[in-house]
Amino acid sequence: MYRLNLSDSQGAFMAGGWGIATLALGVIRIWTAAKPAYYEAMKLMGLLEGTSLAMFTIICLVVGRVTIIQALLPLNVGVVFSLLYFISVVRRRK
To answer: Where in the chain are the domains?
Structure first.
């Protein structure tokens, strides 16, 4: 099994990014997908998840020793998730 070295900034960045992704794709999202009453809450949770992933990546770029190459994927995923969920929330309210 692959082990992350959490004592350096790159290992902590990977662990934090995967922690946010696991939270977003976890049991709660799967459970609420079958319940239309929770769709709005799911959209807001997705918006929060995308925004937090993007912000976490930006903070790690500014504060830590993470390179831009390492941050490109989580930053792009976070921004795209945020935009898609934002569009979904705005279109639903019209």
So the answer is: 10-93
